[in-house]
Amino acid sequence: MKTWFLGAVALAILPSLSLANDTSVSRPGKQLQFLQENDVSIEKEVLEIWGYKVDVKYVMVNHSTKAKTLDIAFPLPSIQLDRILFDEFFDMPMEYAEMEMKLTVDTRDVPGVWEDMYTYKNKPLPLRINFSGVSYENCSAMDEKCAPVCNAILQATGEKDCSQAAGGIELTRMFRWKYEFPPRKPIEVHHAYVVSHGWNWLQKTETASISLLSQKNIMGVTSPEDAFCMNNAGALPETPGTQDAYAFGWVEYVLSTGANWKGPIKEFTLIAHPRIESDIVSSCFPGLKKVAPGTYMAEVVNFSPSGDLAVGFFPGNNPSAESSIFQSTFSPGELPPVETSTTRASGINPSLLIVLGALGGLLAVGVGVYFLRPYVTRYFKNPGGKP
């Protein structure tokens, strides 16, 4: 599931998009409802998070004696429509127009669709919006590109001011798919999604408030002023350079929908990677700790998620520098590399270093052959070394 967040006292704010655990759904009439599924369980889940990508694999089993077809959804957290259209820092219409999800079951691609639901004053609103080609600049200027969006909003709500009407509309987007679960046979479900992570600024010794997040029920949080348990993880920089503030990023993931399946998740593994090896991952999720350079992990058995997840990414060696966790140029099918401190300092892509190393090796071989050629030729002409 995807998540959105609002920054309260920061200098800059962007929304965070991330996935959530699947959940079974139904639609009596026009109202979508989440269901408690009593036959299908999650036997194993491996959730891997980077600063800009979520990759999750489940092993699921239908325990009944018959095949069972389920309508399944990733509901994204609700967001006010005016944040998408009229907030300079969010500027999200194109993100909504270009969302992409990679979904496979037993390595085979499975189709799905994005579906939007709107509510206005807590009631369902019959509204459809095409965000393609629309930006904050269009809507702030109320130009011809934003006009169809505003006309649809005003017609659906009966209001006269587009921005004011949009402030009362909540949008919930979900990725829906359908699958027939075979009886008593494990299947592997794989989701991958490139997130538009959140980022914000913190003062030197300031912790991140939960008010930044869209999800408020975050597992492990004991203080609303420390949503990522930064003190426990050592994420607060001791020497934050010459800057009074530093940037950090985060990704939210809705775990709570995982409780809608049969029983607890038998084996749950959370893995988090910073984009830069020397950066720090911090989260209140119980048991998450650094197990290797660039890798943090937590493992839980018989896991019944009681809340959701927020993972923060903080600059380690040089808090005054902009971390490259703010880059998101990968497609859902790609696994982003974790950069080492060497590649960070040089600014060279790790793949480029490999290519350069190979070329250097070939060059060394060529030089060696060139200088050894006279001796090799002399040996073959006179192999015994006789005069």
Sum up the structure in keywords.
8 helices; 387 residues; Immunoglobulin-like; alpha+beta; globular; disordered N terminus; eight-stranded mixed β-sheet; seven-stranded antiparallel β-sheet; 2 domains; 20% helix
Question: What does this entry look like structurally?
Answer:
The chain has 2 domains: 23-339, Immunoglobulin-like (Sandwich), CATH 2.60.40; 348-387. It has helices at residues 81-86, 93-97, 136-141, 147-157, 162-167, 230-233, 341-346, 350-381; strands at 23-26, 33-34, 40-49, 53-62, 68-75, 79-80, 102-105, 108-109, 113-120, 123-125, 169-181, 187-194, 198-203, 245-253, 265-272, 280-282, 289-292, 295-303, 309-314. 37% of the residues are buried. Strands 8-7-12-4-3-15-18-17 form an 8-stranded mixed sheet, with no helix packed on it. Strands 1, 2, 5, 6, 9, 10 and 11 form a 7-stranded antiparallel sheet that branches. It is built from 8 helices and 19 strands. The longest helix is centred in the last third of the chain and has 32 residues, at 350-381. The protein is globular. It is 20% helix and 31% strand. The protein starts with 22 loop residues before the first strand and ends in a 6-residue tail after the last helix. By secondary structure, it is α+β, with helices and mostly antiparallel strands. Mean pLDDT is 75; it is low at 1-19, 27-31, 319-333 and 335-353.
